[in-house]
Model the fold of this input.
Amino acid sequence: MKIAFLASAFPAVSETFVLNQIVGLIDLGHDVHIFAGNAGRNAKIHSLYEKYNLAERTSYYGIPKNKIIRIIKAILLIIQYTPNNSNVIFRSLNIFRYGKPAVSLSLLFMSIALLRRGPFDILYCQFGTIGPSAVLLHQINPSNAKIVVSIRGYDVTSYLKRHPGIYRSLFREGDLFLPVCEFLKERLIQEGCEESKIVVHYDGIDCSKFGYLKRQRVSGEPIKVLTIARLVEKKGVTFAIEAVSRLLSKGEKIEYTVVGDGMLRQSLQQLIEGMGIDRQVKLLGWKTHEEVKMLLEESNVLLAPSLTDEGGDQEGIPNAIKEAMASGLPVISTFHSGIPELVTDGVSGLLVPERDAASLADALGYLISHPEVCKEMGQAGRRHVEQKFDTNSLNKKLEELYLGLIRET
Done:
């Protein structure tokens, strides 16, 4: 199969799940090409990006921000591609049908990017937000390509709250929708997507890359707590810092490390300094995948207090939790979105209500005082991730779903 991955940015340091699917499908013998608006900012490239030479498979739409340059470049592309693709070019410029996307010339640039490497069997949108563009591209250049859309959280929560009804044409013309958890499947149905078009398909991790590690805490040494997340409201890091501060004030020995970056970094650093816990709590910024694996091996507990933010944005299931469980870490997280589908409360981790620093502190305090429970939870978590969230098995299922769509043509 020839598959087009459509993404907003690539590579993106926080989206290893996209990379895992790309290389998995390549390993299964498929011709995969990536199309993105831009390269991820400050992305520390995963080793697989270079190993599979994904730069050669990636095309950027290259839409210049400067209007004059954009128009000049568009004219040159029109001259070059009109002789053999006049219908596609003219449709992409139809402002009466497509409005702003045609006026801005974005449809022209996107259509030509796909023309250069197409035709494709599958147009695979990495988020629902990209789906409407895929529908337009399919209308501009009609083909037998099937439109497949992954749904990962933001795209059917806060995004739809701000743009009600934006998926009407996508729900009608899309062929397959792949929410990453049962919770998001229900949201899709509520928004009007036909249930027959929906299959829950978890994002996976390569369990073979995360060796299970038996951890032994030395009496008297600090417990090492880790969070891996973008520093945005829905990741709940503010409540995690407050929970750690509560325990430190009671005399517990904790080293809390936060890997990630985002708009809240400065305010979180000010919070840490204001609480006087900057020696015990560190914000490290983004780290490479290899560095993250080393931090997982050195840690005792993963803290992932996800929540619904003020704009209604919600998670699917964070990959960081899967990676931690694969390495044998017990997890403290929340009853949020699809997380209970991954973490079984009391078995592979502890779940608490959202926005509840006191309950987070109680859960962490319990694991500090019960190291034997940490070991049992780590073992249970590893087994569950291997059974349900291994990327190799999930990529084979994704291949089967694609092939099923193509057979229906």
Notes: The chain has a mean pLDDT of 94. The radius of gyration is 23 Å. The first strand starts at residue 2 and ends at 9.
